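Lab channel / #folding
Pinned by the channel admin:
"Please post every new chain as: sequence first, then the structure tokens as a reply. Keep commentary short and put observations after the output so the thread stays searchable."

First post following the new format, from NK:
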Amino acid sequence: MLDIKFLRDNPDVVKQNIKNKFQDHKLPLVDEVIKLDQENRDNKKEVEALRANKNKLSKQIGGLMKDGKKEEAEEVKAQVAAGNARIDELTAKEKNLEEEIKKRMMVIPNIIDPSVPIGEDDSKNVELEKFGEPVVPDFEVPYHTEIMEAFNGIDLEAARKVAGNGFYYLMGDIARLHSAVISYARDFMINRGFTYCVPPFMIRSNVVTGVMSFDEMDAMMYKIEGEDLYLIGTSEHSMIGKFIDTHIKESELPYTLTSYSPCFRKEKGAHGIEERGVYRIHQFEKQEMIVICKPEESMDWYEKLWKNTVDLFRSLDIPVRTLECCSGDLADLKVKSVDVEAWSPRQQKYFEVGSCSNLGDAQARRLSIKIKGENGNYHAHTLNNTVVAPPRMLIAFLENNLNADGSINIPEALRPYMGGMEKITK
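Reply from TO:
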């Protein structure tokens, strides 16, 4: 959510930003907010004037009663009562006006960084850099579920009977590999100075609306029936929510946290849930990283965060590339975002395995996360990035470490988490 003062002073900047995100239907919101804001400020001025007059009249009442002018005192009391009624009326109006302003402000997109490429959708995202040499083996790489099934490592049919499409059972060495990757990612981030955390897996609605846009909320979140609780779509949600309504000393920043959680997503609007694959699913596990920092440090942290993901994938012999998200592909709260994509030998192209985002002060403003500064309080900046998110990461791992005989190489970095195994064999 933008600062109302910024919007008031820079309406043309806000409108151009909306155009850059190809959301022209939101343009009228800017003028509506300005009009409502002016009405609200006029309303407050009248309330202040009425209260000042009330104090003045209240003092007169005491003097009139002391002088025995009871009839005149009653007249002044009637004026005070009328003023009080008007104050109550204007206070109710103020509440309604602020609700209307907030409703519009919550859907006006955050100001994107000037470096973000302008484009309508993800087809206009820009490749930045490649890391590692993509390899296409001289044998056919099977579909990822076929690789898993060869080790009796996945059961989609049973999962469909139990929960429907978009779920799976992982078993045996494949399940162990899944847990090993998560554990390795946890220790990888701890060794980079991040504090490990396991957060709540459910959050209240005020946290949901604090960390994401309404469109994202509708497309992603599962609501717990009869309760003000939602299943998290990523641990970033509850990790940022941890700091709701807090004032943080500048000397304590930055907070660098890495968190594990299961994730639950409706995937509403997705192109269907593929029955035989585990690329897009309703439930998965994830290692995440978040940073709470001062505004002037957020872009430096942005660069550090996506590099952590690249370094982790390269430590497991998986080629990756980074892709700058264009304006139309950015969620409304994001200032700047880069996707990390892993190489798929089967498809002979890259696919998304993680996303790094700088959200500026958007989440902090919604959740009232402030920094205690020498010259007053100000909003923090928040960032998040995927460390690893199996099973997508497993797809990349299996394809890039598959041998012609069907065995899977275990990179040296992962062997301690696999009981010393160098290969998974049938």
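NK: The radius of gyration is 28 Å.
TO: also worth noting, The CA atoms of residues 154 and 314 lie 26 Å apart.
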